[in-house]
Amino acid sequence: ISKVGIFTSGGDAPGMNACIRAAVRTALHAGKSVTGIYQGYQGMIDANFQEMNSRSVSNIIQMGGTILKTARCDVFRTPEGRKQAYHNLKKAGIDGLIAIGGDGTFTGAEILSREYDIPIICIPGTIDNDLYGSDFTLGYDTATNTVIEAIDKIRDTAASHDRLFFVEVMGRDSGCIALNAGIAGGAEAILLPEKSTAIEKLCTQLESAAKSKKSSTIVIVAEGEENGGAYNVAKEVKSRFNFYDTKVTILGHLQRGGSPSSFDRVLASRLGFAAVRHLLAGETRVMVGLCGNEIKTTPLEEVLNKKVYKLSEDMLEMMDVLSI
Ligand code: F6P
After folding, report:
1. Predicted ipTM?
2. Residue 225 to residue 228: CA distance in whole angstroms
3. Which residues face 34 on adjacent strands?
4. pLDDT tens profile 31-69
5. Strand partners, 286
6. Torsion sign, CA atoms 139, 141, 144, 148
7. Which of 307, 277, 272 is nearest to 125 (CA)?
8. Which of the listed residues 69, 170, 225 should we mutate to test ligand 1's pocket, taking the one with most ligand atoms within 8 A of CB?
9. Catalytic annotation, residues
């Protein structure tokens, strides 16, 4: 490999920049050229490339978002789109790729590297923490801390007015952010995609919270849970149990921004470094991930096909006990 192409794709996540920095510098240190591919797969199709040097990644370790920009690209799903992308990569002399993103990004990487002769190493970058093969994904720790900060602030106003808040958090089909931020923020209940919670049961819980004279009640609603999100849950609860003055807060995209936590910066650096080392060692179609305290590789096929369940049962049980 003489020229490494690097790109971010799918939803941005805090830590992506720290990871770009690590990957670029590791490749340069090994005597390779590096090209930044802007806007993910869309940039491959548009030949939106820029040569990178050590200074291109100065002062970005602390920045949220991604300096390489990102996109969700439908054209890349077509054989014609991928043909154009490969043609552009070849023309630019890019003969190895580092992809940072989530399962959509990995699906594209897997297909491209099977159709064309180009090695690709993937790095898990998504706030959702929903990937097999890594205990944590880049951005998840920062996003969870952002949610906790928001819950603490909502708690202040909720307690001042004796209100019930339904706070909706991101995570797609994963309840990792909801469960961890809910526990750390002292939520009274957490609705998760992985575990169904009947509205009746929730109402019973809220009723007993009201009877025990709680001055504020916060229910965390994961966006992927079965009742259709915080507004719906609030409506359903209100129609059965109308003791509290009720409010809904959707935290939305603010969960994706901000300076990465120390955990995410270190993880990003380790994954970026390892990804380039594996690429230069001749590997392809694997994801680098954190397992225990070690960086390991998992074939993309496995990452994409194995179901991941990252909630621990003791935390689920603890949740009900600690919220009384
Ligand atoms: O995958 C990251 C994520 O932020 C999810 O939690 C959320 O469901 C989705 O992306 C939102 O996507 P978009 O930014 O395209 O609206």
Report:
1. 0.98
2. 7
3. 4, 52
4. 999 999 999 999 999 999 999 999 999 999 999 999 999
5. 121, 299
6. negative
7. 272
8. 170
9. 128
